[in-house]
Amino acid sequence: MSDAIRTACPYCGVGCGVLATPDGRGGAAIAGDPAHPANFGRLCSKGSALGETLSLDDRLLTPRIGGREATWDAALELTARRFREAIEEHGPESVALYVSGQLLTEDYYVANKLMKGYVGSANIDTNSRLCMASAVAAYRRAFGTDTVPTCYEDLEQADLVVLVGSNLAWCHPVIYQRLAAAKAARPEMRVVTIDPRRTATSDLADLHLGVRPGADAALFNALLARIEADGAVDCEYVSNHTEGLPAALREARGWDVARTAEATGLAPADVEAFLSLWVRREKVVTLWSQGINQSSSGADKGNAIINCHLATGRIGRPGMGPFSMTGQPNAMGGREVGGLANMLAAHLDLEVPEHRAAVQGFWASPAMAERPGLKAVDLFRACAEGRIKALWIMSTNPVVSMPDADAVRDAIRAVPFVAVSEVVASSDTGNEADVLFPAAAWGEKSGTVTNSERRITRQRAFLPPPGQARPDWKIVCDVASRMGFADAFAFESAADVFREHAALSRLAGALGRDFDISARADVADAAYDAMEPFQWPAGPEGGKARFFADGRFYTPSGRARFVAVTPRAPASRLSERFPLRFNTGRVRDHWHTLTRTAKSPRLSQHIAEPYLEIHPADARRCGLAPADVARVRSREGEALLRVLVTSRTPEGAVFAPMHWTGELSSAGRVDAVVRAEVDPVSGQPELKGSAVRVEKFEAGWHGFAICRARPDCGAADYWAVARATGGWRAELAGREAPDDWTAFARALFGLAETEGDAMVVEDRGRGAARVALFAGGRLVGALFAAREPVEVARGHLAGLLAAAETPPDLLAGRPGADRPDPGAIVCSCFSVGVNTIQAAIAEQGLADVAAIGAALGAGSNCGSCRPELQALLDKARGARTLAA
Ligand SMILES: Nc1nc2c(c(=O)[nH]1)N[C@H]1C(S)=C(S)[C@@H](COP(=O)(O)OP(=O)(O)OC[C@H]3O[C@@H](n4cnc5c(=O)[nH]c(N)nc54)[C@H](O)[C@@H]3O)O[C@H]1N2
Ligand SMILES: Nc1nc2c(c(=O)[nH]1)N[C@H]1C(S)=C(S)[C@@H](COP(=O)(O)OP(=O)(O)OC[C@H]3O[C@@H](n4cnc5c(=O)[nH]c(N)nc54)[C@H](O)[C@@H]3O)O[C@H]1N2
Ligand code: SF4
Ligand SMILES: [Mo]
Predict the structure, then answer these.
(1) Is there a single domain that holds both residue 401 and residue 469?
(2) Are residues 82 and 143 both part of a single domain?
(3) 110 and 154 fall within a common domain
(4) For residues 403 and 396, what is the distance between their CA atoms, to the nearest angstrom?
(5) Which superkingdom does the taxonomy of this entry point to (predicted)?
(6) What is the model's pLDDT at position 1?
(7) Would residue 527 count as lying in a domain?
(8) Which of 665, 696, 727 is the last residue of a domain?
(9) N or C of the chain: less Cβ packing under 10 Å?
(10) Which residues form the domain of 396?
(11) Domain check: are 150 and 240 in the same one?
(12) pLDDT at position 831, please?
């Protein structure tokens, strides 16, 4: 592939290398980059479907003011003026930027420089506050800097990998696959998962600990106590390189097995098994993610984990360490430029005068921020209270992703001037903007990103920006120039910005900090273009894969700090009114607020609707049957979600994906329900622990529809739409059934009152109706409605939109006897459904995932569905054992 361009995946923090080969028609063939050290050629389902997200139909192609197309000049001038005026009248603290771990480092660098060095306020925060601020806080408390001490190879070299609050199989699939492969090669390796839910990840585990939501700190305190009791403390390391162990131990000692089992809801034998396994295996990596961070005591939990690694000296050497896995592609880059409201550039501290002075000198800054700015939750509160007069949101969708999201939407409305930089024309947040800036998207942008193991990779453009779209760094510089800072923002290219960023990091090196890439400060344009992925640090001493084996830390004393941790319950109290914990997270094939992955029909078929996982006993108590619609309520707001009854979520805790938006569902925005309780140390909100009530949405009817054009679901009380090849699919429900289903279907499909030929099957007695509408002999759409949740073969029906002909028995809702129903799609690469897989396992005696791949293709491309295939094999094996 000589004309392939090497770039980086824009989704998760694994940071896979991608080969993109433009097809000359605006699209591109996508493959994994075999030479990239994160993925060695692999891509997960989302990465492999990147080619399906490149179309321009939904893109924002020109600037807009008040919803109308405008020139760049007008949009930039207006934004600069409103920011200038706010600063003049109300001071620098009256303006704010809310940015994103999905910006490139170069974008992030200029945004941070503008706010902290030129506006003179640190009111720039990022969606990373919702993501790994607690991990940053924990690292800084322990090490003195935000340093991830580990690398991916450690996961492969460990003898024990503990995954805490991480659904690696779905959220970091390529790293999960590397781990699974390492475990297969070294069967003596052990994996423990700690998660209230059983997930695709826990299927890999030798031991799964279904911890009570929020109770992890008790478990790691118990571990620290056991480390001491078993004489496993590395006394030399502790006495030479750390401080604070006695205080941490005082907190930990009371956590014996019995008390820990009680607090965590785990069986004492399981607690015991975990403690002794961890103590006995020296090469241990404890990897954590949002199940730890998104908590009102997330920083403490992170430190409870780090404490155990420090006490045993298991840090910085191959196969061991405390590893916070980052979520977004450039969460780490954002940390490096200081994109959080409480940080300065290059891992320097905003609070340290010497650091501030150094950066101010470097930037020749006229007005340097002197104290930390508003963190995300407080920032939107300040908006609601009228303290923010001008706000600029870039590359994030807070109306969907912030806790108490309805209040955040209202807060944005309360700000006199709001600019949003977006790639899509319509989004929940963009629709609230006074000025919309069309940003260049992945594929069109050039710069760098840093993955979870500190590896910096070039993202390279392989398509021209469409319409008038511009790269984010350029938009920031254009506004900054018009605010009067032209000289400081006269960058001509991403390479230009990178050089300044790298040069600034020399200060960090000089001030004894970790983030130093100054060896790259003079990189020429051509060399920047050709830059190979590299791990930082990359200062005068060269690179290193791991930190802290030498016991030298970045605290004033040079010693690592233990943090004494008192476990705390989630901040929102359970009560009779709100008796359930609301856990939220991700699904395998979707990314965040769906603006990109929902464009792909292939990715949309795995899970096409917002849902609520609920334990059978809770479902019974709430009067819910499978496939009902549930209303989830808190004091803040509510959401309507399809019910999935499963014992994979524990009793007392329900789970819903975070992805659905007001664009694609009636009330699937789960953050409308989530309370904005924050960790006092990190400011990260507790996105997985709100107290809620669940009740049945009393539906008089349910419906499923397929159609060519996007359906108009306004007449349904509940709806969710998703793309299908050749059109759309919709799930619907309502309180009262319409009198005339044909008229309802016409309106749904956007037809006029008498338009289209109808084919109707109705059973009025049972409240069931099936309507297909045709125009010029071609199917426009089909609606299947019933009093109960509709049972039709959805995959089959959605597939008909792409078929050359519509079968005469369309309204049967399932394939004829000659064509079996594939069932819900498991493998999105080859569209292989659960029924097909189960039948093949039974009939062909398939014994492992590889055999399924050979027989059906499933799991043989990206591999993201392999954990689910294994679960189907296990289930079939269980059934066979029972039968025997
Ligand atoms: N497919 C996909 N992958 C993604 C993303 C995506 O949107 N889609 N987003 C990326 C981003 S930005 C991020 S931050 C990462 C997130 O990656 P993860 O953190 O792995 O994902 P989540 O699903 O948010 O949460 C992980 C698990 O935490 C569990 N959990 C909840 N409460 C607790 C608790 O109290 N204790 C413990 N131990 N566990 C708990 C949940 O049940 C859930 O299974 O994923 C990245 N990768
Ligand atoms: N309840 C609950 N809420 C959560 C979470 C949870 O687990 N539970 N997770 C939290 C976490 S960890 C995260 S990271 C956040 C993620 O939440 P968000 O950051 O809000 O989600 P995204 O959909 O990634 O938003 C990115 C936006 O930027 C646009 N965009 C894409 N590329 C570009 C670009 O190059 N330039 C510009 N200017 N715009 C672009 C996209 O169209 C999209 O609208 O959600 C948080 N919210
Ligand atoms: S694991 Fe998937 S989403 Fe993450 S970087 Fe790799 S291809 Fe992209
Ligand atoms: Mo995230």
Answers:
(1) yes
(2) no
(3) no
(4) 14
(5) Bacteria
(6) 43
(7) no
(8) 696
(9) C
(10) 64-127+330-499
(11) yes
(12) 87
The 10 Å Cβ neighbour count of residue 62 is 17
HEC per residue, 511-562:
CCCCCCCHHHCCCCHHHHHHCCCEECCCECCECCCCCCCCCCCCCCCCCEEC
Round to whole Å and give the CA distance between 516 and 443: 28
Do 786 and 701 meet the contact criterion of CB atoms below 8 Å apart? Answer: yes
Name the percent of the chain lying above pLDDT 70. Answer: 99
Q: State how many domains the chain has.
A: 6
For residue 678, the cross-strand partners are: 685
Q: Whose CA is nearest to atom 47 of ligand 2?
A: 401
The CATH number for 427's domain is 3.40.50.740
- What residues does the ion ligand 4 have nearby, CB within 5 Å? 131, 327
Q: Which residue has the tokens 């700090």?
A: 561
> Model pTM?
0.96
Q: For residue 297, which of 561, 571, 560, 673 has the smallest C-alpha distance?
A: 571
pLDDT of residue 824: 86
User: With a cut of 50, which residues of the chain have pLDDT below it?
Assistant: 1-2, 882-884
Same domain, 468 and 353: yes
Phi and psi (nearest 5°) for 589?
-105, 5
pLDDT digits (tens, 9 = 90+) for 393-449: 999 999 999 999 999 999 999 999 999 999 999 999 999 999 999 999 999 999 999
Residue type, 824: A
Are residues 859 and 866 in contact, defined by beta-carbon separation less than 8 angstroms?
yes
Q: Which residues line ligand 1 (CB under 6 A)?
A: 12, 46, 131, 164-167, 170-171, 194-197, 199, 211, 213-214, 216, 289-291, 327-328, 583, 585-586, 588, 590-592, 655, 688
Round to whole Å and give the CA distance between 689 and 685: 10
| Among protein residues, the one whose CA lies closest to atom 23 of ligand 2 | 593
For 623-666, what is each residue's pLDDT tens digit? 999 999 999 999 999 999 999 999 999 999 999 999 999 999 99
Where does a domain end: 291, 307, 324?
324
CA of residue 411 to ligand 2 center, whole Å: 18
H or E element at residue 176: helix 173-185
CATH number assigned to the domain comprising residue 222: 3.40.228.10
Identify which ligand lies nearest to the alpha carbon of 401. Answer: 2
Q: Is residue 202 part of a domain?
A: yes
Shared domain check, 760 and 808: yes
The Cα–Cα gap between 312 and 251 comes to 17
Nearest CA among 607, 572, 587, 595 for reference residue 692: 572
Residue 85, Cβ density class (10 Å: 0-12 exposed, 13-18 middle, ≥19 buried): middle
